[in-house]
Amino acid sequence: MALFGLFSKEKKESLDKGLEKTNTNFFNKLGKAMVGRSKVDEEVLDELENVLVSSDVGVDTTVKIIDAIEKRVARDLYLNATELDKILKEEIARLLNATQPDTAQGYDLPKVNGPYVILVVGVNGVGKTTTIGKLAAQFKKSGKKVILGAADTFRAAAVDQLKLWGERTGVPVVSHGMNTDPASVAFDAVKQGVEQGADVILIDTAGRLHNKVNLMNELAKIKRVMQKYIPEAPHEVMLVLDGSTGQNAMIQAKEFMRVTEVNALAITKLDGTAKGGVVIGISDQLSIPVKYIGVGEKVDDLQVFNKYEFVDSLFKKN
């Protein structure tokens, strides 16, 4: 498993810095749990379980990790407590291996007939519109023609924010303003994308999860109208989650999966929290690829998720 060389030095430093609070919090708790211990026994495993749960890894995923370590302790008969970091790192990497693709796709897109359409969903406040803007900037930087659709028409701020990102990045934004039909915006964005030979179309949507029936109907309608131009659209439904909310992000994800088919995740705001362990739990419990993580304010701080680099930064000794 190659942990290094997959990112530029700058991106790795940004990732390390973005996960610094999680890293420090985790090792502080782990250090306190290990004080005075010389071997991995039942008491140590109980302490480790508490550390993982309190680091927002989640109960179910924590149980999997503890079970795996228990088996290794039983097999090897004796494990020194100083080896626990290494074993824990290996088990977390193994969990991520099960759900994350071996190679990060980056800003390359699968070959499709016409533009690649990404429908972006998520509740208000998670950084959805900002994530779309940063993605647009990075797709454009990689040489792609991008179009944005401002279909979160229930919030003036969302429409205005997306327009601002369009101006900042030089990417066209299809908008009908506030309180207009979101499906109509999506239809026009896809139509324009096809006519102008766009490579990728990103559609922002409303995040009113408290009204699930309406949201389900709205997303279904958006999909139907887009398919008049591109039968396979959307090629991707990306759910944006706020990592700083910890296990609430997991609850939100499960709620969204009840109203629409989600096949990609972006987890934002990891730099402002010590709850980065939630990435492990979400990846394990939902079995949906985490494609992007937000580790800072800059455009380049929305990074392609690389499981090897993530684990390395999580366990980095400062």
Characterise this structure:
The protein is α/β, with parallel strands linked by helices. The chain is 50% helix and 13% strand. The protein has an 8-stranded mixed β-sheet, with helices on both faces. The N terminus is likely disordered.
Architecture blueprint of SSEs:
Blueprint: H1 9-18, H2 20-34, H3 42-54, H4 59-76, H5 84-99, E1 116-121, H6 128-141, E2 146-151, H7 156-169, E3 173-174, H8 182-195, E4 200-205, H9 212-226, E5 236-242, H10 247-259, E6 264-268, H11 278-286, E7 290-294, E8 302-304, H12 307-314
Helix pairs in contact: 2-3, 3-4, 4-11, 5-12, 6-7, 8-9, 10-11
Contiguous runs where pLDDT drops below 50 for at least 5 residues = 1-6
Cα end-to-end separation = 22 Å
Number of helices: 12
Structural class: alpha/beta
Computed CA radius of gyration, to the nearest angstrom: 21 Å
> What's the pLDDT, averaged over the residues?
90
Biggest sheet: strand arrangement: 3-2-4-1-5-6-7-8
Query: Helicity level, as a percent range?
Result: 40-55%
Query: Shape, please?
Result: elongated
Approximate strand percentage:
5-15%
- Give the ordered list of helices and strands: HHHHHEHEHEHEHEHEHEEH
The biggest beta sheet, please?
Answer: 8 strands, mixed
Total count of strands: 8
Enzyme class: hydrolase
Subunit structure: Part of the signal recognition particle protein translocation system, which is composed of SRP and FtsY.
Keywords: Cell membrane, Cytoplasm, GTP-binding, Hydrolase, Membrane, Nucleotide-binding, Receptor
Membrane topology: Peripheral membrane protein
